[in-house]
């Protein structure tokens, strides 16, 4: 008898998350130098970690025989201070992805429902499936979350509602007024999750923390993986109303975030120059791609994040052909967008190389 018969059915039903293709693997397969490869597939920071974070990482190394601070006191205090919230409002995660999973642990089961937008971050669907819950996908005309339709989709069974703002992979955002109107319609039995992984890239991001301060059943997720350049360390956080974070704290592992990550994150918060340089490089890169795509007559979705979604006709083919030349982009079939690729903003040199290779490959289509 097959062992699958005895495994949790919801797990067996899952289609594993496919990350961006790793640089080392690509270099090995192509027989290329890893340094020659341009990876613009996972929305990573092309400038790397903050210099102050690098120092903190080096200094932490000698103390790795000691367990981390399970309560994450210093980092949580710094975040509470930064946002003028209390320590009880802050929960740390092994990447903000872990907090997504913790939310599902706490609020989902068979028969419960999670609402998200049609082209939302794919991890929500993965997690809803893992917990045997119903995944309710609401159409997003022009790739923008339709909050009226999402509110209308709420039923007695709804427990979680995710708003990725800006959303990945579309790069679109909903504004504060729309969010405020939406919040008026949300009943108490639904936890609203604002996933703000790209918050730092948005000049005038909507204030969602006011709903946390008002004590609504809301949590705002942010991360050190994107603008802070610490994706490899896995550290993110949630800013939530105490009644929400209190439950999440019970569901996490005692040492869910490691000591190196906590210290590097803390140091990153102080390195404001690095975030500014990152955001400025990103704005230049977005403008570069938008002009290029307009000239090439390609359909794209105007983005406020650190990547851009562009329609190239056959995303898998463009991905495969660009890969052969050492440039890794992300095909979007998994998001039911087989014609599209998502390109992360790189350094100026990386953007130029990516575009050059893209043009050469598209000329052969
Ligand atoms: C990248 C991303 C995250 C952050 O993931 P981490 O686990 O913090 O690395 C969360 N949400 C969305 C929508 C993302 O694109």
Report on this model:
The protein has 365 residues and is an alpha/beta fold. It has two domains: 3-48 and 273-362, Aspartate Aminotransferase, domain 1, CATH 3.90.1150; 51-271, Aspartate Aminotransferase, domain 2 (3-Layer(aba) Sandwich), CATH 3.40.640.10. 39% of the residues lie in helices and 15% in strands. It has a seven-stranded mixed sheet, sandwiched between helices. α9 (209-213) links the parallel β6 (191-195) and β7 (218-223). The model has no long low-confidence stretch (mean pLDDT 97). Pyridoxal-5'-phosphate binds next to α5.
**Can you tell me the CATH superfamily of the largest domain?**
Type I PLP-dependent aspartate aminotransferase-like (Major domain)
Q: Biggest β-sheet: count, sense, barrel? A: 7 strands, mixed
Domain count: 2
Task: Report helical residue fraction.
Answer: 25-40%
List the helices and strands and how they pair.
Blueprint: H1 9-12, H2 23-30, E1 38-39, H3 51-60, H4 73-83, E2 90-93, H5 96-107, E3 113-117, H6 123-130, E4 134-138, H7 147-152, E5 158-164, H8 176-183, E6 191-195, H9 209-213, E7 218-223, E8 236-240, H10 242-251, H11 259-270, H12 272-296, E9 300-301, E10 307-311, H13 315-324, E11 327-328, E12 330-331, E13 340-344, H14 348-362
Parallel strand pairs: 1-11, 3-4, 3-5, 5-6, 6-7
Antiparallel strand pairs: 2-8, 7-8, 9-10, 10-13, 12-13
Bound molecules: pyridoxal-5'-phosphate (PLP).
């Amino acid at each position: 008898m097959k062992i699958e018969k005895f495994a949790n059915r919801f797990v067996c039903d899952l289609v594993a998350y496919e990350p961006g293709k790793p640089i080392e693997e690509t270099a090995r397969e192509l027989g290329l130098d890893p340094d020659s490869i341009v990876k613009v597939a996972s929305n990573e920071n092309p400038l790397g970690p903050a210099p102050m974070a690098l120092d903190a990482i080096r200094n932490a190394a000698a103390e790795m025989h000691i367990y981390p601070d399970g309560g994450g006191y210093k980092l949580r205090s710094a975040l509470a201070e930064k946002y003028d919230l209390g320590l009880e409002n802050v929960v740390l995660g092994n990447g903000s992805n872990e907090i997504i999973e913790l939310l599902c642990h706490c609020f989902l089961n068979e028969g419960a429902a999670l609402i998200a937008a049609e082209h939302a971050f794919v991890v929500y669907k993965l997690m809803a499936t893992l917990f045997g819950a119903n995944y309710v996908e609401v159409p997003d005309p022009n790739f923008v979350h339709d909050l009226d339709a999402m509110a209308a989709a709420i039923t007695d069974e709804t427990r979680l509602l995710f708003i990725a703002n800006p959303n990945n992979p579309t790069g679109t955002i909903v504004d504060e007024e729309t969010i405020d109107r939406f919040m008026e319609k949300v009943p108490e039995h639904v936890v609203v999750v604002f996933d703000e992984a790209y918050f730092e890239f948005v000049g005038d991001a909507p204030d969602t923390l006011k709903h946390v301060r008002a004590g609504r059943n809301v949590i705002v997720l942010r991360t050190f993986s994107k603008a802070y350049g610490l994706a490899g360390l896995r550290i993110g956080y949630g800013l939530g109303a105490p009644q929400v974070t209190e439950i999440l704290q019970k569901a996490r592992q005692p040492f869910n975030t490691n000591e190196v990550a906590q210290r590097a994150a803390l140091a990153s918060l102080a390195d404001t120059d690095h975030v500014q340089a990152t955001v400025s490089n990103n704005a230049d890169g977005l403008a570069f791609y938008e002009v290029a795509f307009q000239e090439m007559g390609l359909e794209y979705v105007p983005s406020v994040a650190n990547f851009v979604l562009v329609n190239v006709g056959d995303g898998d083919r463009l991905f495969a052909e660009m890969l052969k030349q050492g440039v890794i982009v992300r095909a979007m079939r998994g998001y039911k967008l087989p014609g599209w690729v998502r390109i992360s903003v790189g350094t100026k040199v990386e953007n130029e190389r990516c575009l050059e290779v893209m043009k050469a490959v598209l000329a052969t289509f």
